[in-house]
Design brief:
The chain has 298 residues and is α/β, with parallel strands linked by helices. Helices cover 36% and strands 17% of the residues. The strands form 2 sheets. A 6-stranded mixed beta sheet has the order 1-2-10-7-8-9, with helices on both faces. It has a 4-stranded parallel beta sheet with strand order 5-4-3-6, with helices on both faces. Belongs to the cysteine synthase/cystathionine beta-synthase family.
Length: 298
């Protein structure tokens, strides 16, 4: 019998594609890493499987256990998939303001969903997850403090991009939420070529962009090391959404709002440099945002 892969083996090795129209006349090459092509539809498939597999290898969890995690959406969906693959019970805590598609996807994988108010937000979801863990209700992987999160990108995303660009990458642009993607990729890229510029994106004050955060100091992810990011850009909600819609209509890339922010940041970088190879992370697909109406506007 052939050695057929399982769905777990399909995580990673996502396409890297060149933008054709949005960059305009430029000597730069802008490349988008299509993480929506992962099985559960986002870049978070990588750390979700990494955190579970590494915890299993250390003997910290075993199939049948209950895992608890606070999430704004994509990590929760990815963890729900990974839990279904590996045989775990999954309890996810998230703000009620998350899109209905995200909630439905989590439940489809068999996860139990616990909502906190929009006002409590991700900070409240994280506090509740820790309280449930302390009450003995399950194990928290804690994507915000777990080194197996950036490890997934150090082992996977970074090397893939390095190979796909034949080492010609000059700039890496990524939205910052848990910061796992930018931390892991930065560590890998800087080891290959310290001159590669790492650009992180955060929302402007008052902006609400799913997947991109400005954390209060007390909730700053423990995996985040500021020295690994060369530059941080503030992205407005309007800019992220306008670029997201333009990606669909002018490039045929249907993605979420944080990916729109990443491309907006990459376009800003491109306006400042020449003969550069700029890579950005397209975190997820746009179909999990349809109910929010963000694609209805011109």
């Amino acid at each position: 019998m052939p050695d057929y892969p399982t769905i777990e083996a399909c995580i990673g090795n996502t396409p890297l594609v060149r933008l054709q129209r949005l960059p305009g006349a430029t000597s730069n090459v802008l490349l988008a890493k299509l993480e929506g092509d992962n099985p559960a539809g986002s870049v978070k498939d990588r750390p979700a499987m990494s955190m579970i597999a590494e915890a299993e290898a250390r003997g910290e969890i075993s199939p049948g256990d209950t895992i608890i995690e606070a999430t704004s959406g994509n990590t929760g969906i990815a963890l729900a998939m990974a839990a279904a693959i590996r045989g775990y019970q999954m309890r996810l805590i998230m703000p009620a303001s998350a899109s209905s598609e995200r909630k439905q996807a989590m439940r489809a994988y068999g996860a139990e969903l616990i909502e906190v108010t929009a006002e409590q937000g991700m900070e409240g979801a994280r506090d509740l997850a820790h309280a449930m863990r302390d009450a003995g209700e399950g194990i928290v992987l804690d994507q915000f403090a777990n080194p197996d999160n950036p490890l997934a990108h150090y082992r996977g995303t970074g090397p893939e991009i390095w190979e796909q660009t034949a080492g010609e990458i000059t700039h890496f642009v990524s939205s910052m939420g848990t910061t796992g993607t930018i931390m892991g990729c930065s560590a890998y890229f800087k080891a290959q070529n310290p001159q590669i510029e790492i650009v992180g994106l955060q929302p402007k004050e008052g902006a609400s962009i799913p997947g991109i955060r400005r954390w209060p100091q007390a909730y700053l992810p423990k995996i985040f090391e500021p020295a690994r990011v060369d530059r941080v850009l503030d992205i407005s909600q309007q800019e992220a959404q306008d670029t997201m819609r333009a990606l669909a209509r002018e490039e045929g890339i249907f993605c979420g709002v944080s990916a729109g922010g990443a491309v907006a940041g990459a376009l800003r970088v491109s306006a400042e440099v020449e003969n550069a190879t700029i890579v950005m992370i397209i975190c997820d697909r746009g179909d999990r945002y349809l109910s929010t109406g963000v694609f209805d506007k011109n």
